[in-house]
Design brief:
The N terminus is likely disordered. With about 625 residues, the chain is mainly alpha-helical. Strand 3 and strand 4 form a beta hairpin. Helix content is about 60%, strand content about 0%. It comes from Chrysemys picta bellii (Western painted turtle).
Amino acid sequence: MLSPLPLLPLIKEWVFLMAPLSWCGFPSWRWRSPVSVTLPSLELSGAIKNPSLLKLLQLESCRICIRGRMSEQNSPVQAASLPRQDVQTNPSQAANPVLLMTQTDSRDKWSKKMDFLLSVIGFAVDLGNVWRFPYICYQNGGGAFLIPYTLMAIFGGVPLFYMELALGQFHRTGAISIWKRICPIFKGIGFAICIIALYVSFYYNTIIAWALYYFYSSFTGTLPWTSCDNPWNTPNCTNYFGKSNVTWTTFSKSPAEEFYTRKVLEIQKSSGLYDVGGIRWHLWKGVKTSGKVVWVTATLPYIVLLILLVRGATLPGAWRGIVFYLRPDWEKLMSTAVWVDAAAQIFFSLGPGFGVLLALASYNHFNNNCYRDAIVTSAVNCLTSFLSGFVIFTVLGYMAEMRDVEVEDVAKDKGPSLLFITYPEAIANMVGSTFFAIIFFLMMITLGLDSTFGGLEAVITAVMDEYPHILAKRRELFVLGLITICFLGSLTTLTHGGAYVVKLLEEFGAGCSILAVVLLEAIAVSWFYGIQRFCNDVKAMLGFTPGIFWKVCWVAISPAFLAFIIVSSLLDQPPLMLFDYRYPEWSMSVGYLIGASSFICIPFYMVYKLVWTPGSLKQVRKS
């Protein structure tokens, strides 16, 4: 008779390694009878007939499974919450199924739930919430824009946000290796995500450097963008605050605008992308020292927003800005462009597809309520965007009052210009301007750093999980190498013409390419991995199955939502402009190559997988 005790190590190996393949990837665990599997190295057919060994095998398997699945609170596993797939049991053993799983409990976890929530909110709430939403809102019908924005959030943004949190939490791995368990032939999606994250870091670090330079410059009695008496000013510089006999013309430049373009960017020393000039060393220092403010928590931006909102609401003319911000223009709802802008805004605001949500959620406890997290963080994100609109437009109304012009003439700036020209100009003419400038740019730095660190964490987690045998003991060296690559990639954006490079990377580095990546991700999960299998995964974690609304969104509405944005964006490509510079045709070709360089990983990997993996197409999908 074979003694059961020497088999314990082998039983553990068998439990974790013998889970069967599915049609498209590896399931996380299955109900499976132990007698249906034989090991080449050991004849178990006779051994398993021993009742003592069979009982020991079942108890050891369940013990290992429970240890990996349970949270630290040792909450009981509910059998009803576990998805039962491919059940093949012998009637004589049906009463004693053995639960096999591939996940382990060795992965790090968040020490507190609030740590995870603040990390997700910090990533999702970025500089785009402060400048892009207010501009898009008033440009597309004011208060009427909230209708398409809300609809796109409900049927597109939030379902995709929820999907990524659930995928990361269930599979507990990064953006590359997760596809081994979902659908291996789509593994190129993970590599594409990492490349896009690098492109974003190249220009996002520079925007933080601009904010740092403003932050340093704010520690003076008189802000340097207050007057026209500085060496970088031109005859067109016009300071209209506090003066009644100044006429504002189309050629007039405010002190804040010339400080940004001629002092910070030094863009006058570059003739365009043909000649970007040398590196501005004062900004090089800014990128190098970005990590010095990591002690600032993710809650600071909200405190600053509330302070600025209260201050803005007390300014003369603030009501004009609020009316302009919220006044509905119902006719614009008939325009397709408004719906495209709403879809793009909610998508880039919530940020599915960048790999960050997968990475952050992978450190959650298995039974964490990711459904509630998705609803809460999405709501916080959208409300932050809406609140930022009041902060921005109360100040724009004040500026319109001072210039004696319409609000729409003041609010013509888009993108970073709104943060680095329009708002600083208003701050410079407030009582206590130094204080408000310091907290405003500190808020910008924290918003930028949260998103930057989230993007880098996505790359680190993805690569570390994909190559643990190489990088497990070299994490610090890998992180150092990654930061060095990001730093070197940012140098092109720190030249005199670096603002042109930033604009190019912003438009093409993470434009349609990231949309296409998320579209394929949604299709791979819903159609290839299977919507029912995915819902079973969610049920295993949360104890309930997602409702019909979520299933329909994942299968049809969200992919259609993404395809709608992609097609509309490709069909309507306006000329790329920055200040008075129009990008040449060859630069547009370079931009398309940048966008394609990340997305091309997906078909390349598919071809590689099909060519180099032996077997039929169905077998390749499983391998």
